[in-house]
What we know:
The chain crosses the membrane at residues 27-49, 56-79, 99-120, 127-145, 151-169. This is Undecaprenyl-diphosphatase. 79% of the residues lie in helices and 0% in strands. By secondary structure, it is mainly α. The protein is elongated, with a radius of gyration of 20 Å.
Amino acid sequence: xxxxQQNIRIFRMINDLGKEYPGINPIMIFITEYAIYFLALAVIxxxxxxxxxxxxxxxxxxxxxIFAEVAGKLAGMLHSNQQPFxxxxxxxxxxDKTVGNSFPSDHTMVFFAFCTTxxxxxxxxxxxxxxxxxxxxxxxxxxxxxxxxxxxxxxxxSVVSTITMFAFISNSSSLKSHLExxxxxxxxxxxxxxxxxxF
Length: 199
């Protein structure tokens, strides 16, 4: 019961900020709704860069997210709660959302799976991605669609799954070999296309 009350108290603290500072609301709405497209473009960019390490990073991100989603679904079977706007009064709900089990936060899981992966593969710029993941998590509370417990649990699940996947993938000589072979065939294919265009 105490944990539940803390969950609500922290939710109110963050969600009520939207009432105190309404000028920030459009930013939080944009982040919670559209940051996912920025993440998708980044993943595509990293893959198309053709670098071996970057492609390993993308694969690690995908596998981490899949593993986190499975773990999240299992967690959702053990505990469930609806969105705050469906359970509490006077919630500053800023986006439309179908009522259902909001535990854990899927948005948070996908961002932490990929952003933690980016951080593990590149510590120099990875912190920027971690800031983005945290910001997305906070935005889900700010707009009224998730409790802090939903977000924190989603983040923890993804971080654990990503660290596990990274341990396997970063040391996988088999994956490196397959990606190198794929890269060579891909290069040959593009070379043939370039030659055909010149005729």
